[in-house]
Amino acid sequence: MRTRTRARAVAGVAAVALLAGCNAGAGSSDPTTDPGDGGTEEGTDPTDAEDDTGGATGEAAGGGSDETVRIGLVAEPASLDFSTTDGAAIPQLLLDNVYETLVRVDVETGEVVGALAEDWEVSEDRLTYTFTLKDGVTFSDGSEFTAEDAAFSLERVSSDAWTTSLKAQLDVVEGVEAVDDRTLEVTLSRPSNQFLYALTTRVGAMYDTEGVDDLANDPVGTGPYVFDEWQRGSRITLQRNEDYHGETPYFATVEMHYFRDPNALNNAMLTDAIDIVSTVQAPESLDQFEGGDYQIVEGTTNGEVVLSFNNGDGPFTDLQVRQAARHAIDHQSLLDTCWAGRGELIGSMVPPTDPWYEDRTGDYPFDPERARTLLQEGGAEGEEVRLRLPTLPYAVACGTVVESMLEDAGFEVTVDELEFPSAWLETVYTNKDYDMSIVAHVEPRDLGNVFGNPDYYTSYGTEELRTLLDEADAGTQEEQVQKMQEAAELISTDAAADFLFLLPNLMVADPDITGLPENAITESFRLAQLGRG
Predict the structure, then answer these.
(1) What is the pLDDT, as a whole number, of residue 75?
(2) From the CB of residue 457, how many other CB atoms can be counted at a distance below 10 Å?
(3) Compositional bias of type Low complexity: which residue ranges (predicted)?
(4) What parts of the chain have a pLDDT lower than 70?
(5) What is the b/e burial string over 285-310, where b = at least 16 CB atoms within 10 angstroms of the residue's CB?
(6) Tens digit of each residue's pLDDT (9 = 90 or more) over 3-24
């Protein structure tokens, strides 16, 4: 039996965002850690909203069972603390599963809906948000969730306890007050379209005031699952939270198995070592499952595979050199060669599921002669450029194609692979010791985080772009769409990076697994939606 579903465009809501993660494997001959990084990553992180399975493979089962589901992924977390450790693999595992947020995204409609907050009101001046919290919610340690915990959690983001750059999403928060046990009031310094959406991401995670002593190893949340065990380099186990305030998850135990090698991941599925391949990392291998007793889910993500340029140092500080690189890439040929034609060409940092999407694939058409001319005019012909790749399947596969195309246009390219996450994060992401890299930014609405901050690894963040982002955040929804489109156009025409393609959401699972997300457009893999029927 085989079920195939195709992507459905999802409407979005106001916001700017960041980047995200990937997944894979289980029980294989080569299980190995492959965490996500602080704003960049690979693969996709399948996720789903409260009652929305994206029309993929059926309704999530309502009653609990004693069954275990085994999920294969490719990126193992480096830690369980996303307040101090970058990487999309952490929220993919914990957000909406162990930790919950006040609000979250309905992936079917794109709307922000209530989660731990039953409802909320916004003042006329858009500066005050008053949240009414759900009653009867407890943390996994047994303590009650109150507005005091919510205030503590949001205030903690702006403190030294949070060290990742993503904390900047809540810089707009001026004050937080627990009015009573079930009422939380948040005051902003200025109107912000991004604020509510930001609360659906990891910065909106709700912590127990007494449960933050060892977040890296012992997360305490209100979610449908609790952390059980971590066999590093192999798997992480979650157990059903028997005191969960919401609907009981079907699976009593979830095992997240991690692989680096895509073939080992596929073999684990073929030999019944896992029940779900959360992200197929060798799309050309899908024919192994086409005729078998498997379901294949094919949808979309917000994971832009980016050929990053170092805009702060080296040859790519020159506009003509950046333009040359963009003209040198035959994107359709690259997609066909390194990712079996699976995915979508978009030409920018905005996926079609965002409300300000525009097709920008025509900005830099494939033109190797033009690329050679620009390279000569930029004085970089024959100059060595370093393409430093993370050891992630899509980056390695596409890196050789990019290298060949750039060299055909006159670039001298040196390629080296950096172990992901540690070596790549230190060398490229932190130290900016690179000229080019390839990484999938898979966090939702990440244009502003990737290109709006001059201190980020891309070293872009021009004043013109930051002004557009500020105007988009403070304006009406119509103004937000217009300004975000202008921002995407600026990034593209200024060749701040090249946008290779948008990752597809490719999943393989047992035929009776239900609740699989068609589209992976948020930070989490909502495990409580899974069932067997």
Answers:
(1) 80
(2) 25
(3) 23-35
(4) 1-63
(5) bbebbeeeebbbbbbbbbbbbbbbbb
(6) 333 232 333 333 323 333 333 2
Residue 420, pLDDT score: 86
Name the nearest CA neighbour of 257 among 281, 232, 225: 232
List residues bridging with 180 in a β-sheet.
183
Instruction: Tell me the pLDDT tens digit for each residue of 478-510.
Output: 999 999 999 999 999 999 999 999 999 999 999
pLDDT of residue 298: 95
The DSSP secondary structure of 127-181, one letter per residue, reads: -EEEEEEPSS-B-TTSPBP-HHHHHHHHHHHTSTT--SGGGGGGTTEEEEEEEET
Alpha helices in 281-417 (DSSP H): 287-290, 319-328, 331-338, 368-377, 393-408
> What residue type is 429 in one-letter code?
Y
Give Cα 506 distance to the centre of its chain: 15
Task: Give CA–CA dist 39/166, Å, rounded.
Answer: 8
Is the Cβ–Cβ distance between 71 and 256 less than 8 Å? yes
The pLDDT, as a whole number, for residue 59 is 43
Give the other-Cβ count within 10 Å of 470's Cβ. 16
Nearest to 265 by CA among 516, 510, 511, 28: 28
Longest dimension (CA), the chain: 67
DSSP per-residue letters across 416-451: EEE-TTHHHIIIIIIT---SEEEEEE-STT-HHHHH
What is residue 88's predicted lDDT score, i.e. its pLDDT? 85
Q: Indicate the pTM of the whole model.
A: 0.84
Q: Is the dihedral of CA 287, 289, 295, 297 positive or negative?
A: negative
What is the C-alpha separation between 344 and 361, in angstroms, rounded?
A: 10
Q: CA 297, CA 63: separation in Å to the nearest integer? A: 24
Lookup: tokens for 107: 């992936």
Contact 167, 224 (CB under 8 A): no
CA–CA distance from 444 to each of 173, 198, 301, 482 (Å)? 20, 10, 9, 19
